[in-house]
């Protein structure tokens, strides 16, 4: 691949004869280089091969921000992937770089924007939130800019979103709200405080997240065993009653009605998480 554009000594845009593009980073990779020259891949530390149509957006973004923000974001993402033991969708390099740039601009202009989902993110995406707090330290160490602690919630959402194939930030925010509302239905229905440190709570949260994604994607689990639903419904009547309240909530908010097969899993999880919490109480 040959150099198409040099952003600075460490970041360049490459293209091949088929016009496939790639942004690469490496110390001194663009030093004393010119367009159309071959690149020395031994100097490449990071390649950015993102979704088709997104390369132009990333290129445009790089042209209008401090290039150090891209290098900073790269380190934040690699740190998060290591801590969370995941591989993010490459589009996070575009979305998070844009966010960090805007957050720094707001900070410098004294504009404070509150995140309305701060509490939910802290509660339902604990691991991503704690990693995001550490990511803020990278910003402070590199730029001597102490972004508000609340900014970690927004960064955490980028980490969550980048783990969901094909989803977008709007959907991630919707999922977080749905999960929070469903959890509150369980709490008020049973009149208890759930044991958030239990394995059942962790399993319940995981189930609710994927349940919410399926609801938003209109991809419910198909009905396969009506007799099992009737059996679970009769065995756990209180959990079934709670699940029906969830169905009512979803229908009022223009979501699809979960299938009986979906409700089987939901009822079982509700019973497990509330049974342990009730016994502890």
TrEMBL record:
Is-annotated flag, keyword Nucleotide-binding? no
Q: Which domain of life is it from?
A: Bacteria
Xref: Pfam families? CAT_RBD (PF03123), PRD (PF00874)
Q: Which UniProt keywords apply?
A: Repeat
Q: Which residues form the PRD domain?
A: 64-169, 170-280
Q: Which PROSITE patterns match?
A: PRD_2
Keyword Repeat on entry: yes
State what protein this is by name.
Answer: Beta-glucoside operon transcriptional antiterminator
Species the sequence originates in: Bacillus aerius
């Amino acid at each position: 691949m040959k150099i198409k554009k040099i952003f600075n000594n460490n970041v360049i845009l490459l293209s091949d004869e088929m016009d496939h593009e790639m942004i690469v980073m490496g110390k001194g990779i663009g030093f004393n280089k010119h367009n159309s020259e071959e690149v020395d891949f031994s100097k490449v530390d990071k390649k950015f091969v993102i979704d088709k149509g997104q390369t132009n957006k990333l290129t445009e973004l790089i042209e209008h921000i401090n290039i150090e923000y891209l290098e900073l974001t790269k380190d934040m993402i690699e740190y998060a992937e290591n801590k969370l033991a995941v591989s993010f969708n490459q589009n996070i390099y575009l979305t998070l770089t844009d966010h960090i740039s805007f957050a720094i601009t707001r900070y410098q202009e004294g504009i404070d924007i509150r995140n309305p989902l701060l509490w939910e993110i802290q509660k339902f995406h604990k691991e991503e939130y704690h990693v995001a707090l550490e990511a803020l330290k990278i910003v402070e160490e590199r730029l001597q800019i102490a972004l508000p602690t609340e900014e970690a919630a927004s960064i955490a959402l980028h980490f969550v979103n980048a783990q969901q194939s094909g989803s977008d930030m709007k959907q991630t925010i919707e999922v977080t709200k749905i999960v929070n509302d469903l959890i509150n239905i369980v709490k008020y229905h049973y009149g208890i405080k759930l044991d958030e440190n239990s394995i059942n709570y962790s399993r319940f949260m995981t189930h609710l997240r994927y349940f919410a994604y399926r609801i938003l994607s209109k991809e419910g689990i198909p009905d396969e065993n009506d007799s099992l639903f009737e059996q679970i419904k009769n065995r756990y009547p209180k959990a079934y009653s709670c699940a029906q309240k969830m169905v009512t909530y979803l229908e009022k908010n223009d979501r699809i009605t979960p299938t009986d097969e979906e409700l089987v899993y939901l009822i079982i999880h509700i019973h497990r998480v509330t049974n342990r919490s009730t016994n502890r109480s």
